[in-house]
Amino acid sequence: MIRKKNAAAFAGGILFIIILPFIVMFSINVIVDPLWFFNHENRMNEVQEDFDERQQKINRVAFAGEEFDALLIGSSRVTYISQQEFGDENVFNMASGHMSHKEYAPYLEYVEEKRGKPLEKVYIGFDFFATSENKGVTDPDPFIQNAEDRLYPLKAYLSRDMLEQSFKNAEASLTEEPFHRSYDRNNVGTTEKLEPQETQERIEEKDADFEEVTYDENTYTYDETFKEEMQQLQEAHPETEFIAFTTPVTEELFRTMQQEGREKDYETWLRDITDVFGGVEHFMYVNSITKNPNYFYDAHHYYQTLGDLMAHRMAGVEDEELPEDFGIHLTKDNIDEELRSLKQNDWEPEE
Q1: Residue 7's pLDDT band (boundaries 50, 70, 90)?
Q2: So where does this one cross the membrane (predicted)?
């Protein structure tokens, strides 16, 4: 009997030794929570890397019980608009890097399914360059399927790869040294602040890339399905108010768009958005903000300070720092007049 007890104790000890590393791994991953299954905050997880934005944000909706009435959606540019800067509105920022407008419909449908009711409002961002037929699209299905798997958090946090990510996040939190794009536990994204010289180099580098590749006549063709797809999206959510907006770029990159012969496509894009949504908060034109490189990280990504100005303009939040010339509300009634004004004042490059 004693031998049997000793054998059982020995086996139990061996089993404990085997499972202990997994318990420790799972515990650390839960505490740091790099995949956003929970909404707790502590000293170890104040800084989060955007290593899998789509999954992180959909997990926040599916698992963490995030409560909100309005959604903000768009590409990496929109990640720098703080969801906390829309006045009294309760907004969740669903934007992710390289997100295409073709991805919006599945995410909106899934979010409404998890909420059990329609969204009251959607701030929907549009990048002009993304209207190219050659713009890549990331399939939303794998992220949604993961979020529907109730065992997904367990499987994910028993992963050594996720443990390594937890250590990275914990180190960044403790040292207060952020990543290229970092999030806090309130889903507010920021990017590293560059010195003026490095910023100018990045602006020039991106500008050259758009000139040689993105806007080149052999690469860019306006996607004629854009308007129809957005019309279908709008019609699928009849109880939701859509606030469409365009994302700003530096004056240099705007001039490149002109010089590469994309003006007609640019006008078509604005008219398509206005026709579908009834109006658009327009920021992509030459103004006092886009002329100032201090607001930009590179030619088409801006700092959160500019994102805050956009949120304030769209939500009607008073802001003494908000220039009068930043933001035009285009409608079916005024778009012809406003486009003529832009052409007269700012479109043609200066000699």
Answers
A1: low
A2: 7-32
Q: In this predicted model, what pLDDT tens digit does every residue of 237-251 receive, in sequence order?
A: 999 999 999 999 999
DSSP H stretches of helix in the chain: 2-32, 53-62, 76-79, 104-115, 141-148, 152-157, 160-175, 196-209, 226-235, 251-259, 263-277, 304-315, 335-342
Burial classification of residue 286, based on how many CB atoms lie within 10 Å of its CB (0-12 exposed, 13-18 middle, 19 or more buried): buried
CB 212 within 8 A of CB 219: no
Contact yes or no for 188/84 (Cβ under 8 A): yes
Determine the pLDDT at residue 349.
Answer: 46
Q: If you average pLDDT over every residue of the chain, what do you get? A: 92
Helices (H) and strands (E) in the chain, counts: 13, 9
Per-residue pLDDT at 282: 98
Give the Cα separation of 125 and 110 in Å (integer): 18
Q: How far apart are CA 304 and CA 108, in angstroms?
A: 24
Token match 């758009």: residue? 210
Nearest to 215 by CA among 147, 134, 148, 317: 134
Contact 315, 86 (CB under 8 A): yes
- In order of start, what are the domains of the chain with their CATH numbers? 68-137+197-347 (3.40.50)
Q: Is the pLDDT of residue 350 over 50?
A: no
Instruction: Look at the block and give the residue holding tokens 């701030």.
Output: 123
What is the CB neighbour count within 10 angstroms for residue 219? Answer: 14
User: How large a percentage of the chain has pLDDT more than 70?
Assistant: 93
At residue 206 the predicted structure's pLDDT band, cuts being 50, 70 and 90, is confident
The pTM for the full model equals 0.91
Q: Please say whether the beta carbons of 7 and 141 come within 8 A.
A: no
**74 Cβ contact partners less than 8 Å away, ≥ 6 residues apart:** 81, 95, 99, 124, 125, 126, 127, 247
Residue 103, Cα to own-chain centre: how many angstroms?
Answer: 12
Alpha-carbon span 118 to 109, nearest angstrom: 9
> Rounded CA gap, 130 and 76, in Å?
12
